[in-house]
C-alpha cells in the first residue's frame, strides 16, 4: 500500500512542459552550444536543445521577457524583463536558476547588447523624466574597431560613439524611423531598416548620405511616386564564402496594396534573387544562424530561425528552394484550441507502433534532409530498463495520429452551420472522448450533441456511415396551470414529509407555441458511401434530435464497452444506451424515470412559464420542481441552475458556484444531469449471487443508479437477439455531483472492465477459420476463492468518497473530501504497486486517498484554479503522473510520487556541454598590414571602477539569486554535471593563472621601466664630476 512518505511535494516545473510557448516575445541562440531560448509574455523561458533536451523556467515576477542574450559558450543567459530588471541565469545545471538580478529604478530598458567574449553588457534605456523621449532602440559595436559603439534611435538618428575618447565620432540624421541595424563583417559599412519599407546602406567614409537606398517590395508608380510599404522591422546583413553576394534577410516591407490579403512574410535577398516566404502567423522575431560566433569574420549563414506567434520554424539557407526543417519538438500539440484531454498509461505494446506507422503517412513532405541545427545539450539514459522507460515516458511526446471529425458530416450550405451568422461555436468541436486501447474503439462527443464511433483498421474501406437519431426529451399529457400550483405544494410539520397529491410525471408537455427554426449547430451525416483511409474509420453516428426548433442539450457523460457492444451517453434530460453491434437504440429514458419505484425524492412539478427559459444559452425549455426528500424530518428544496459542463460555469473565470450536500436546503437545478457512466461486471441487485453486466449511472444530485444488463452469450444470438436492461431499484446517495466509479476486488486490486480483443474489420477473411469475437472478462467472481464473494465499488463525488461492498451495498468507508470547495477531477490510479484515489480540487489542492480505506495520504496546495482550461483538461494517470493545459498551446506534466521526484534529477537533460571555443580565423599578413585587424582593448580600463568610478546606487538595485552559487553547483548531477563542474573549476583556475600572469607581466614592465630610467640617469651623469652633480 502506498504510504504518505511515498508522495512528495511538487512545483510547477516538476517534470516538463510540452507545446509551443504561449505569447512568445523574443528569441536567442548560442552558436557554440547550439541551444535556443524563447521568452514569453508571461515571464516564461523555454530552452531547447537536441530532441529530449527541453527545459522550462519561470520568472517569479511574471513580467514579460523583452530580450534574451546568451553568454556564448559560458553556460549563462541574461534576460531583460518588462519590469526593468536584468536577470543572470546559470545554465550549468539541470534546472536553471537565477544567480543575480539588477533592478533599474529610474530607467526603462529598451535594448541590450552583449559582445562575444565580453563580460560587459550594454543596456539601452529610456529616460522617464525626459520630456522629449528618444527610445534607445539599437546598440551594436563596430566589428573591426571594438572601441566604438553604434547606437540607433527610433527617431532616425544613428550615433557612433568612441568608447575610449568618450565622444561622438559622427551622427547620421535620417527622415524615417530606424527599426534595426546590421553591420557588414568588415565593419566598414552597415545597413538600416526603416518604417517606410526601405533599406539604407551607409559607409563610414562618408556618413552625409547613404550610399544605397532600396525599396525591396516597392515599385515606382506612373506618376513617379513610390508605393507606400509596411515597415521593415528587422534586417540581417550576412556574407558568405561560397558566394560574393551577401545575404540580406528581413521581415515585413510589403506594399500596402499587396499585403492587404497576404500573410506575414520573410524575405531572403541573395544577389538578384528575391525569395518571399509567407508565414501562417505574424513574425515575432527571427535569427540567422552562422558557422562562426565571431562577428568580424565571414558569417556563412546556414539557417534562419523564425519565431511566429503560434509556430516555430527553421529555414535551410544552404538549398536554393529554402526548405524548412522538420521540427522534432512537439510544438504544435493541435491545429485548433484544445477542448479536452485524456491520458492513457500502460497501453498495449502494439498500439503505438501501428498508430505511428499510419500517422507517418499524414505528415507533410518537402522537408530539408539536413540535421536539425539546434543540437545542443545532452541527456543520458539512466541504467536499467525501468528508468529508461520513465525517461521516455515523462520527457518525450510525439504526435502519433490525427483524426478530423468534420469529414463525417456534409459541408454546411450557405446560411446554415458555419456559414450562419448566429453560430458562435464550431459545430464540430470535440467535447469528450472515450478510447479503449485493447479493442481500439474510439468514441467522440461533439458540441452539436452527436456521438461518433470509430473502429481501427489497417486497410482502407468504402463504407456507409450508420446514422441514428435520438429524441432525448420527454413529454407528458398533463398540463398544470399556475392556479393549481399552490394545491400541489407540501408543507411538512411532522417527522415525515408527506405529499398531499400524487407524484406527477417527470416532465411537462411543450404546449407553448414553438419558436421559428434558426440556423444553429446542426450537422448532417454524409448519406453516401465514404472512402476512408487506413486508421480510425467512422462506423456510426448518434445525434440528438432538435425539438420545436431548439437544439438539444449538450452531452455530459460517455462510456463505451467493446465486450458488451454497448455505448452509453447522457445529458441533463436523460440517458441513452446504443447497441453498436446491432446498430439500434437499446434504451432512451429520462433521468427521473431511471429511479423507478426507488426514487429518494418525491417530485412535485410546477407549471412552466409562458415564455421559454434557456440554460447554457441554448434556448431549451426548463421546468421547476419541488423535491421533497423521504426521511425523518428533512426537507430538500432543489431549484436553480446546475451546469455540469465546466465551460459554462462562468465567463469571468469564476468558480463561486455553491456545492452544498444533497441533504441541505440550498436551491439546486431541477434538471438532474447524468454526470458519469461506467460499464462493468457487478451485482445489479442485493440478492444476486453472481455478477452480471451492469451500467453504473451517477447524477448531478449525488445519486448512484445501477442498471443490470442481460446480454446473450453466444455470438450468433448476440447479433440477433435483443438485449434487455432496466432500472433495478438500487439507489445510493452522496454529497455533490458524482464524478468517478471504480471497482476493486476484496483484496484491493483494481478490476478492469471487460473488453474485446481487436480484430481488423476490413481484413481478409479465412474461410477455414471464421472470425469470432474474443472477449476478455475481469469478473469479480474470479477472485472469490481467495477473497470471498462480492467486490468493492469506489464512488467519488464533488464532496465525498465512499467504498461500497457489493452485492450487500453496505458502505464500508466514507470520507468527506472538502466542504468549502468542490472537486474538478477524480481518478483511481495505480501507484507503488497499488491503487489510490487522486483528486484535484477547485481551490488548487491535489489530494490522494488510500483504497479501500480512504485514508488521506497527501494534500498539497499546488495550483490555484484561475482558468476554465485547467478545470477542463486536468487529468491523472498511473505512476503518479498528471497533466493539464497550462496555456492554450502548452501541456504541463507533473508528478506527485516520491520515487519519480527522487529520480527526476538524473532524468533531466544537460543544457551546458563543455565545448572548446573555436579559434578566430587568421587574417594573414597582408590583410593585417593594411589595417584589417581589429583594434582590441581592455574594457576594464573604460568601465572599471578605477576609470569610471563606482556606479550610483540609486540607478539600479542588485538582488542576489534565491540560491547560492555553491548550492546550485551541487544541484547539478550525473556524469555531464561532473564534467561541467570540472570545467568551472578549470575556468576559475585559468582565470587565477591569467590574473597571476597579468600581474607578473606588469611587474616585468615596471622593472623594465625602472631599468630604463636608471640607465638614462646613469648616462646623463656618466661624465660629470662629483662636484657637478
Written overview of the protein:
This protein has 1029 residues and is mainly β. Helices cover 11% and strands 34% of the residues. The protein contains twelve helices and 58 strands. A five-stranded antiparallel β-sheet has the order 6-7-8-9-58, with no helix packed on it. A five-stranded mixed β-sheet has the order 27-28-29-33-31. Strand 10 (107-113) and strand 11 (122-127) form a beta hairpin. The protein is elongated, with a radius of gyration of 36 Å. It starts with 15 loop residues before the first strand and ends in a 9-residue tail after the last helix. The relative contact order is 0.11. Its main location: membrane. It is a peripheral membrane protein.
Layout of secondary structure:
Blueprint: E1 16-19, E2 24-30, E3 35-40, E4 44-48, E5 54-58, E6 65-71, E7 76-81, E8 85-90, E9 97-104, E10 107-113, E11 122-127, E12 136-141, E13 148-153, E14 157-162, E15 167-173, E16 178-183, E17 189-194, E18 199-203, E19 212-214, E20 232-238, E21 247-252, E22 265-270, E23 273-278, E24 283-290, E25 301-308, E26 312-316, H1 351-359, H2 385-395, E27 430-436, E28 441-446, E29 450-457, E30 461-463, E31 466-470, H3 485-488, E32 530-532, E33 535-544, E34 557-561, E35 566-570, E36 574-579, E37 584-590, E38 601-605, E39 625-629, E40 674-682, E41 692-699, E42 703-710, H4 715-720, E43 724-725, E44 731-733, E45 738-744, E46 755-756, E47 775-776, H5 784-787, E48 791-797, E49 800-806, E50 810-816, E51 823-831, E52 834-841, E53 845-850, E54 856-861, H6 868-873, E55 875-877, E56 881-887, E57 890-895, H7 898-907, H8 925-929, H9 940-943, H10 945-948, E58 956-960, H11 965-971, H12 974-1020
Parallel strand pairs: 31-33
Antiparallel strand pairs: 1-57, 2-3, 3-4, 4-5, 6-7, 7-8, 8-9, 9-58, 10-11, 12-13, 13-14, 14-15, 16-17, 17-18, 18-19, 20-21, 21-22, 22-23, 24-25, 25-26, 27-28, 28-29, 29-33, 30-32, 34-35, 35-36, 36-37, 38-39, 40-41, 41-42, 42-43, 42-44, 45-48, 46-47, 48-49, 49-50, 51-52, 52-53, 53-54, 55-56, ...
